[in-house]
Amino acid sequence: MRCSLTGSYVLILSVVGVSQVVQASPVAQESRASRTSSYSYGSFTYTQVTSTRYATSLSSPLSFATPFAPAFSEVSTLLPSNVTYTTYDLHPSQTAAPDGQYGQSAYAALWANLSYTSAPPFTTTVTPIAVPSSELIYPPTLYNRIYSADLKLPSDFIWGVAASAWQIEGGLQLEGRGPSALDTIGAIQSNDSLSDANIADLSYFMYKEDIARLAAIGVPYLSFSISWPRIVPFGVAGSPINTEGLQHYDDVINACLEYGITPIVTLNHVDFPLSQLSDFSSLSENFLYYAKQVMTRYADRVPYWVTFNEPNIGVGTSFSEWNDLTHVLTAHAAVYHWYKDELQGTGQITIKFANNLAVPLDPSNSSHVDAALRYQDFILGIMGNPLFLGEQFPSEALNTPNLNLTPLTQDQISTIHGTIDFWAFDPYVAQFASPAPAGISACAANQSDSAWPECVTATMIQADGWLMGDMSNAYASIAPQYVRQQLGYVWDTFKPSGILVSEFGFNPFADSQRAGDAQRYDLERTLYYQDFLEEILKAIYEDGVNVIGTLAWSYLDNNEFGSYENQYGMQSVNRTDGSWRRQYKRSLFDYVDFFHEHVESA
Ligand SMILES: *[C@@H]1O[C@H](CO)[C@@H](O)[C@H](O)[C@H]1NC(C)=O
Ligand SMILES: *[C@@H]1O[C@H](CO)[C@@H](O)[C@H](O)[C@H]1NC(C)=O
Ligand SMILES: *[C@@H]1O[C@H](CO)[C@@H](O)[C@H](O)[C@H]1NC(C)=O
Ligand SMILES: *[C@@H]1O[C@H](CO)[C@@H](O)[C@H](O)[C@H]1NC(C)=O
Ligand SMILES: *[C@@H]1O[C@H](CO)[C@@H](O)[C@H](O)[C@H]1NC(C)=O
Ligand SMILES: *[C@@H]1O[C@H](CO)[C@@H](O)[C@H](O)[C@H]1NC(C)=O
């Protein structure tokens, strides 16, 4: 270096294969104020400030010393003996000749009101090619970031990435898949490969490549979801099981292990079988029927299971009434009890909750504090109370006129309580809460109030007029200042054994309109992740909260429920040039780097 800086800066010197963090001493900081510069001329020379550093791949393959459940051959007797195993092909002409309740024509009829106009450009599994080393070169080092290098994470910290079936798979009408609730969005939204969920990222055929790329850059955990209607096309208990669906996810799990990645499996990520939507009272029976099929087969190789994704915000979208949440709790508990007691699984099971923490707009105003707490009760207490505390639904919800939420019986509470091994939630950002304009009780009594039933006004603008953080293309923002309170709220309220951040992410404004190179240099996304992770370290070390892992949303730009504009990916997917090529963005390198810095070796 030509000029030596002292003071409170942290310099990160990057040399090949090594990132060295130099922290200025407190003594140097104290003397900074009194320092004066002394200027002098020298002889100018160029200095090389970048050096080439390569990602470290996972060492494959992975095998677990003890399986997490008995092998399928030992537990297949837990399945009903009269199940039909078959597959389906979608030919519109088959609607003409009826061939029984669950025949090919009945299958075609399931799709009668849904049509995708574009077809996937290929329909067979792509064999992955080794990621060329030129793609594994680290981006320029983040300058002057303050890394708390001395704060370590345990070697079993669950760090990785996440995505869900419908958002990346494509091939929605292939290999016997039945229609899902989400297809009603997908089918009407598009006519072309740029926006059609029937194509998406083609991950149904490129999953091996996706997994190989994560292993090449060194990501050890992958959270994905199984498409329920690929396993049970008609969605109902007793209906046929699709063998091609079973085979597919068996392959996905094996590919993870082959490349050294630990799978985290979600059984349902919003894509309920279409038939379920009309009546959730049969959810428990249908969900258990499906779960048994996949868990008997895969549970030996899967340490972590998620039953449902974000059901706590599903009323009004997936669910038509609040009592449907009781059906979700019951279905979850049924699977939990069956997995632990019948299958004798030793893995862990949870539900993922949505929650952007409500913090009072004015913390000194008790009505704002009440509004924030009421919001949290509606979002988290509604399921967290029975699951974690063995308690009734929050009184704020039960006392809201016309909500039509039936209190749980004591029997239901005992069945549900404790059927969850750790807390998992998706805290993208926080928001400021105050009472709805009419006031909470007037609003609660007025079903036509637009803020009903929560009756809370939420905003991203703090009381003094500033935005809480740099805004994204949607609602998230770079606001690390509330991460510790998000974790603290859950920790102190529900007292879980541990907390998994099961999704967090950022979609930069107008990202999809930028050139590919600019999209890949995603500095905002990187700042979001680095700031968030630094705050998690403080939650662990300063607040005593047991955060057991973080999963970034998402490892690919994908279909954000009808939009490809909201890009959350740490990899781009070229959906315009016909290549479907994935490319790493800088945020994925920096994310991996953070954990290499902090996670202790086993
Ligand atoms: C399969 O067996 C179960 C339990 O005996 C029964 O309730 C169900 O109706 C049978 N299903 C079919 C398709 O035969
Ligand atoms: C398709 O729409 C028609 C008319 O609304 C309805 O009667 C039928 O039940 C629908 N079919 C399916 C499979 O949803
Ligand atoms: C897709 O094409 C159909 C028929 O050509 C048309 O009615 C519909 O509006 C188109 N949808 C979009 C989103 O362009
Ligand atoms: C507290 O908040 C309420 C609702 O926003 C407002 O009407 C009231 O004036 C505030 N009280 C104080 C003391 O600021
Ligand atoms: C209920 O809310 C609606 C919509 O804001 C409003 O028009 C109406 O006056 C409210 N009713 C009462 C009784 O406050
Ligand atoms: C897709 O590929 C085209 C042609 O190579 C390129 O111009 C474009 O920037 C790429 N898009 C992305 C997001 O990488």
Automatic annotation (TrEMBL):
Keyword annotations of the record: Signal
GO MF, one example: beta-glucosidase activity
InterPro entries for the chain: GH (IPR017853), Glyco_hydro_1 (IPR001360)
Stretch forming the signal peptide: 1-24
Family to which the UniProt record says this protein belongs: Belongs to the glycosyl hydrolase 1 family.
Domain of life: Eukaryota
Any one GO BP annotation for this protein: carbohydrate metabolic process
Alphabetical list of Pfam families matching this protein: Glyco_hydro_1 (PF00232)
Coiled coil residues, start to end: none
Protein known as: Beta-glucosidase
PANTHER family: BETA-1,4-GLUCOSIDASE (EUROFUNG), GLYCOSYL HYDROLASE
